[in-house]
Amino acid sequence: MLLTFYLLFIGLHVSEGCTLENRGEVLNIAAHAGGSVLLPCYCTDQHTTPERFSWKKDNKDTWEEISIESGQYRDRVQLFNGHSPGNVSLLISHLTEEDGGDYQCSVEGAHLIIRLTVKGCPLENRGEVLNITAHTGGSVLLPCYCTDLHTKVKTFRWKKQNRSTHKQEEISSESGQYRDRVQMFNGHSPGNLSLLISHLTEEDGGDYICAVKGSRLTIKLTVKGCPLENRGEVLNITAHAGGSALLPCYCPDLHTKVKTFRWKKQNRSTHKQEEISSESGQYRDRVQVFNGHSPGNLSLLISHLTEEDGGDYICAVKGSRLTIILTVKGCPLENRGEVLNITAHAGQSVLLPCYCTDQHITPETFSWKKDNKDTWEVISSGSVSTETEFSWLMVTLQETSLYSYHTWLKRMEEIISALLKVLI
Ligand SMILES: *[C@@H]1O[C@H](CO)[C@@H](O)[C@H](O)[C@H]1NC(C)=O
Ligand SMILES: *[C@@H]1O[C@H](CO)[C@@H](O)[C@H](O)[C@H]1NC(C)=O
Ligand SMILES: *[C@@H]1O[C@H](CO)[C@@H](O)[C@H](O)[C@H]1NC(C)=O
Ligand SMILES: *[C@@H]1O[C@H](CO)[C@@H](O)[C@H](O)[C@H]1NC(C)=O
Ligand SMILES: *[C@@H]1O[C@H](CO)[C@@H](O)[C@H](O)[C@H]1NC(C)=O
Ligand SMILES: *[C@@H]1O[C@H](CO)[C@@H](O)[C@H](O)[C@H]1NC(C)=O
Ligand SMILES: *[C@@H]1O[C@H](CO)[C@@H](O)[C@H](O)[C@H]1NC(C)=O
Ligand SMILES: *[C@@H]1O[C@H](CO)[C@@H](O)[C@H](O)[C@H]1NC(C)=O
């Protein structure tokens, strides 16, 4: 017991002073900009108290002492030898890329070198070209971030390359094309430099560059306008006079916001295109579009069709157009223009035939007239607003006679009113 104590005492005596761990060596340490790093330097026996120690940094081939009170490291370095005297490790906080370099820890004549590498922000996908597609009116996130999202990036830039001049123009939310339309998120997540562009226009398409010190990334943004569905084609649509017709015209993505589009009708004789307006002209109060609900749906609804509405319609957006041939079927009468000779006997009934060649057509208006001393006197007229399965003009005029004009007229009115009841 005594012997053991004696040996221990001798041991302590011999190891008096600090033997520097890793002395004479070069340690490589890497850290991230914005973070902190502990540069290790301690005595093999941490209970020893070194009489002298110093921390120096290599500055262009001269070793400069690190000062806690002034210069580059002011308020950013910390020692722990108060608690553990043999541990003179140095903690450097709020690292910047300039902190990288060789550090020398000297303790009683022995020293060790620490080679510190401060990593900036090596961008994810750096050096690559990313292709991103978005739609006009929408928004797009151009991704750009450090491989480590905690990295604090002091300076970075978003630029757009002008394809004709090849000059790079800085993107600013304060002025120019992107005013109030761009947003960044590096406040929350310092290494996330992604750019959000809102209210996209086709002019926003192009090459964007995200650049940090030593690393850059190119993003090719394509802003799709509205390439119309069935563009360049000719659609044939048939509708009936008095009815309505939906002329289809829409973007493949119904969410696409289309800034300007036009509906025009082509005059077949002059080949001039005339704009269709619900405010004036032939289509006044008869046309309707639905792009309020579904911005990419530019379809045109024409109501109360007349035969004159037939023709070539053009739906045009920037860079794309579509032609629709509308045929409005009216009621071309069977035997029209002819004179039919019908003979009947007094007291009997007679059918005066008059019907559309296509019996599914409902004429908007009709009238029956009788020749009365060389003037055509209207004896009956009406209008029909709903379609009907049967050809309502083929009505047997029973118990009427061409010779008892008043009876005939009365009967005709009854038939018409009965017919209208059926139709409604
Ligand atoms: C020296 O002190 C620092 C800070 O307290 C600590 O993180 C480190 O582990 C210590 N080194 C040793 C070898 O104990
Ligand atoms: C991006 O688009 C360019 C040009 O359109 C093309 O050369 C490149 O291969 C595309 N890259 C990817 C990853 O799709
Ligand atoms: C590219 O530069 C030319 C000349 O300065 C300019 O007229 C044009 O508007 C620029 N294009 C874009 C997309 O900024
Ligand atoms: C960057 O921030 C944006 C917006 O908050 C987010 O959508 C995106 O996922 C973030 N990127 C990464 C890599 O975290
Ligand atoms: C549409 O009608 C035009 C002319 O009547 C014709 O040339 C064309 O082939 C038709 N198209 C279709 C898809 O039916
Ligand atoms: C076509 O143009 C001619 C000459 O301007 C005009 O008389 C005619 O009414 C037009 N046709 C249609 C269907 O608008
Ligand atoms: C466009 O809107 C009309 C009217 O609401 C609708 O009938 C039509 O189906 C829509 N077109 C598309 C492609 O959604
Ligand atoms: C109908 O009668 C008129 C006059 O009587 C006559 O001129 C005409 O040819 C007749 N039409 C037919 C189709 O029989």
Automatic annotation (TrEMBL):
<keyword id="KW-0472">Membrane</keyword>
<feature type="domain" description="Ig-like">
    <location>
        <begin position="227"/>
        <end position="327"/>
    </location>
</feature>
<dbReference type="InterPro" id="IPR013783">
    <property type="entry name" value="Ig-like_fold"/>
</dbReference>
<dbReference type="GO" id="GO:0007166">
    <property type="term" value="P:cell surface receptor signaling pathway"/>
</dbReference>
<dbReference type="GO" id="GO:0042130">
    <property type="term" value="P:negative regulation of T cell proliferation"/>
</dbReference>
<keyword id="KW-0812">Transmembrane</keyword>
<dbReference type="GO" id="GO:0042102">
    <property type="term" value="P:positive regulation of T cell proliferation"/>
</dbReference>
<dbReference type="InterPro" id="IPR007110">
    <property type="entry name" value="Ig-like_dom"/>
</dbReference>
<feature type="signal peptide">
    <location>
        <begin position="1"/>
        <end position="17"/>
    </location>
</feature>
<feature type="domain" description="Ig-like">
    <location>
        <begin position="122"/>
        <end position="222"/>
    </location>
</feature>
<keyword id="KW-1015">Disulfide bond</keyword>
<keyword id="KW-1003">Cell membrane</keyword>
<keyword id="KW-0393">Immunoglobulin domain</keyword>
<dbReference type="InterPro" id="IPR003598">
    <property type="entry name" value="Ig_sub2"/>
</dbReference>
<feature type="domain" description="Ig-like">
    <location>
        <begin position="34"/>
        <end position="117"/>
    </location>
</feature>
<dbReference type="InterPro" id="IPR013106">
    <property type="entry name" value="Ig_V-set"/>
</dbReference>
<dbReference type="InterPro" id="IPR051713">
    <property type="entry name" value="T-cell_Activation_Regulation"/>
</dbReference>
<dbReference type="Pfam" id="PF07686">
    <property type="entry name" value="V-set"/>
</dbReference>
<keyword id="KW-1133">Transmembrane helix</keyword>
<keyword id="KW-0675">Receptor</keyword>
<dbReference type="InterPro" id="IPR036179">
    <property type="entry name" value="Ig-like_dom_sf"/>
</dbReference>
<dbReference type="GO" id="GO:0071222">
    <property type="term" value="P:cellular response to lipopolysaccharide"/>
</dbReference>
<dbReference type="GO" id="GO:0031295">
    <property type="term" value="P:T cell costimulation"/>
</dbReference>
<dbReference type="GO" id="GO:0006955">
    <property type="term" value="P:immune response"/>
</dbReference>
<dbReference type="GO" id="GO:0009897">
    <property type="term" value="C:external side of plasma membrane"/>
</dbReference>
<protein>
    <recommendedName>
        <fullName>Ig-like domain-containing protein</fullName>
    </recommendedName>
</protein>
<keyword id="KW-0732">Signal</keyword>
<keyword id="KW-0325">Glycoprotein</keyword>
<dbReference type="InterPro" id="IPR003599">
    <property type="entry name" value="Ig_sub"/>
</dbReference>
